[in-house]
Write a sequence for this structure.
């Protein structure tokens, strides 16, 4: 995970104790105030967000709507940070009050009934971390596939908050056997949640994303083929009332791959299918798209990953 202005032990522990002892509304307000200062000193991130939004919305980078949306992204990120520390410290009953509904729950139940697990694939859109608390509140077994934080102490705090809700963690940048661990989880009929819009390791395949050639990771599709678990594009988005709702799109099932050419076609077809779904939701909720790395450049140069 690359560094950003809030990526420090002091920042993380400060927000943790604010969330622990102050009311939710006040904590969210403080989060927005903090991010307002971050906004002022984050020129590079503002520029990256503006470029990406211009590609997604087909507007000039200096359009007033782009500037307004960039600022809303920062403000929404302030609430995201606050809620990330608030919700894991709440009881299961209180956690449920933060959520409105989960669309596609019936499909998920049917998939898990087959016993092969499920792979939830998301973009850096909405509050993907909070989705873990939503699923655990519904008593689903869940493992998050994540990148470790730069600081050991902040990494420990964040993972402890996840673990407190019964969420398992696999850090793909800290173990060469992470793929085997994920496969074992799927064979136990668990849910794996991971992001699919950034190629962190340079082994992805090029697809068209908002008119740009962008590398998407092939790992999720490879895991799907190896395990038989389907990929479900999934998003957790914020409503105007501050609550969150989840969306599970139609599952993408692995096909039979007989030779290298078929595998290549399968990967290209489904990566482009995933990209179109991501584009649809990003265009629908542009002020919840936390992606300051210019999409036409390698991952690792912006606000949050």
């Amino acid at each position: 995970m690359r560094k950003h202005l809030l990526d420090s032990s002091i920042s993380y522990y400060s927000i943790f104790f604010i969330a622990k002892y102050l009311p939710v509304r006040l904590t969210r307000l403080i989060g927005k105030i903090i991010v307002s200062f971050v906004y002022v000193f984050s020129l590079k991130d503002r520029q990256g967000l503006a470029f990406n939004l211009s590609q997604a919305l087909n507007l000039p980078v200096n359009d007033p709507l782009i500037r307004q949306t960039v600022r809303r992204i920062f403000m929404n990120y302030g609430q995201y940070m606050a809620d990330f520390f608030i919700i894991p410290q709440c009881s299961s009953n209180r956690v449920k009050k933060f959520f409105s509904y989960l669309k596609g729950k019936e499909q998920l139940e049917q998939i898990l009934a087959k016993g092969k697990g499920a792979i939830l694939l998301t973009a850096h859109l909405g509050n993907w971390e909070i989705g873990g608390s939503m699923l655990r509140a519904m008593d689903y077994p869940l493992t998050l596939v994540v990148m470790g934080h730069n600081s050991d102490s902040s990494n420990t705090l964040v993972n402890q908050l996840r673990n407190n809700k019964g969420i398992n963690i696999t850090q793909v940048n800290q173990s060469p056997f992470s793929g085997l661990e994920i496969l074992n989880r799927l064979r136990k009929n668990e849910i794996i949640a991971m992001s699919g819009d950034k190629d962190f390791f340079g082994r992805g395949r090029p697809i068209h994303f908002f008119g740009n050639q962008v590398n998407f990771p092939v790992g999720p599709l490879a895991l799907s083929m190896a395990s038989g678990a389907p990929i479900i594009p999934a998003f957790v988005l914020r409503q105007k009332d501050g609550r969150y709702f989840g969306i599970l799109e139609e599952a993408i099932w692995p096909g039979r791959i007989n030779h290298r050419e078929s595998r290549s076609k399968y990967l290209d077809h489904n990566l482009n299918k995933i990209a179109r779904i991501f584009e649809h939701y990003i265009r629908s909720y542009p002020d919840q798209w936390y992606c300051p790395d210019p999409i036409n450049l390698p991952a690792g140069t912006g606000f949050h990953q």
Observations:
- The chain has a mean pLDDT of 89.
- The first strand starts at residue 99 and ends at 103.
